[in-house]
Amino acid sequence: MAAPLAAQEAAPAAAPVAAPAPADPNAATTPATDAAPEEMSMLVWLIHTSGWIGGVLLMMFMYFVAQVVRLFQDLRPEVVIPQGLIDDLDKLLAARDYAGILRTAKESDCELGQMVAAGLPALSNGLSEARESVDRAGEAVVVEMEKKNSMLAVIGSLGPLIGLLGTLKGMMSSFSDIAKGGEMKASQVAHGISEALLITFEGVAISVPAIFLFAVFKNKIASLSLQAINLADDFIMRAHGSARSKPQASGTSQA
């Protein structure tokens, strides 16, 4: 009887040891829940560290993108010196329709049309006066083009300066923490230093493409405006020659 009683007492004692530990339902989801805050914290850190200076740089960047798209659309040969307008003016000149030439040039929304419209009425004062009118109209066109492009130079100049403002703000924050005294930790001054570096990077990141594209568009403006002036000047000279040859043609037919 002693052996069965001992076995019965040993069985309950061994049962708790053999029972498996309950699985933690949150164990599998812990890495996923920890990964999401770390991923979001980077964006939150960028926004928080950039501050209001980062907001100013963001608005500058949005304006920069819009201005670049506008310049790419406006500074194209088919916009400045459209082939369709050139063909129409040549047809009207062949028909000696000077009123039609002036009307077509004024109605065209392009730089070449503006130059022709400025030079054609001045033909009554002589060819030299008409060519000077074309040159003056060309200078006005270049000024308008450069005015659009000049904003890229402004952005390229302001970007590093605004970044420097962020650098000063971040360094002042770090030195303010150091001035409080006591035992300092790297984490206490790291925020100010990271703010200084981040905003400086943002300012330079806007400035570099702005300066590069300013030079690209400046060259395009010089090239397109020169082509437009040459085409307008050549057309005015041909219009002057056509106007002078008209009386000679009528006199020859009478003879």
General description of the model:
The protein has about 260 residues and is mainly alpha-helical. It has one domain (about 50-240). About 85% of the residues lie in helices and about 0% in strands. The chain has helices at about 1-20, 30-75, 75-80, 85-95, 100-105, 110-120, 125-180, 185-255. Helix 4 (about 85-95) runs antiparallel to helix 5 (about 100-105) and helix 5 packs antiparallel against helix 6 (about 110-120). The protein starts with a helix and ends with a helix. Mean pLDDT is about 80; it is low at about 10-20, about 25-40 and about 250-255.
Characteristic key phrases:
mainly alpha, 255 residues, 8 helices
In short:
The protein is an all-alpha fold.
Q: What is the residue-mean pLDDT, rounded to a whole number?
A: 79
Shape: rod-shaped
What is the radius of gyration? 38 Å
Structural class: mainly alpha
How many structural domains can be distinguished in the coordinates?
1
Helical proportion, percent range:
over 70%
Low-pLDDT runs: 9-19, 27-40, 248-255
Number of helices: 8
Please summarize the sheet with the most strands: none
| N-to-C SSE string, H for helix and E for strand | HHHHHHHH
Assess the beta-strand content as a share of residues.
Answer: under 5%
Number of beta strands: 0
Q: Give the termini separation.
A: 157 Å
Question: How would you summarize the topology of this molecule?
Answer:
Layout: H1 2-18, H2 30-74, H3 77-80, H4 83-94, H5 98-107, H6 111-119, H7 127-179, H8 186-254
Helix pairs in contact: 2-7, 2-8, 4-5, 5-6, 6-7, 6-8, 7-8
